[in-house]
Amino acid sequence: MKAAKITGIIAVAILAGMFTISLTIDGIVKSGIEENMSQLVQTEVSVDDVDISIFNGSGTIKGFSISNPDGFSENEAISIKSMTIETDLASILSDQIVVNEIRIKSPELLFEQKGVSANLKTINDNMNMESESSSEKGLVVNYLLIENGKVEVNTAIDRERTVTAEIDEFELSGIGKAGLNTLQQGMKEILEPLIKQAMAQAAKEGVLEQVQNKVEDLING
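-> structure tokens emitted (221 positions)
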């Protein structure tokens, strides 16, 4: 009876420890995404929930969103309801985080034109600015798949209009393997192709050409 009681106490202690470790890992990933991505894009980034298994490193990230930059609407520029990931758990606490796979399904982007500016171009430009504070950690992503994305294009040049277009599926591999890489640089390599795909769709709708013409009109008086 006494042995059974001791066994029960040990089992509870182990479960409590595993639960604590799980919460710690989830919290580290959540705060890491929000803090580093916010520094990268220079606008608010939020994640609703992170759930990573402490047994195999697989999990989900839910409710990822990037707010519009200043000067644009209060709508989200980028939102992803859910993405699946497979991580190397041991790497999360090391100097280089290794993610074996990221699968992003149905990302939603908003291309919003205001005057001669566009929100996604602003975010893309922000990512290419020198950051004063970069994470000491590195990020490697062995495989990335983005599928079933769409972009809503809102423009007010000449006339207001809204169109929705699909973003072509694409995959990348070896992100962050070219030399030393910061978390922000790795995140940029993930986000930049998605933004460029969305901007390419906006270009097909003639929006970027209209913006360029508007700038030339302003310059020429």
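The radius of gyration is 21 Å.
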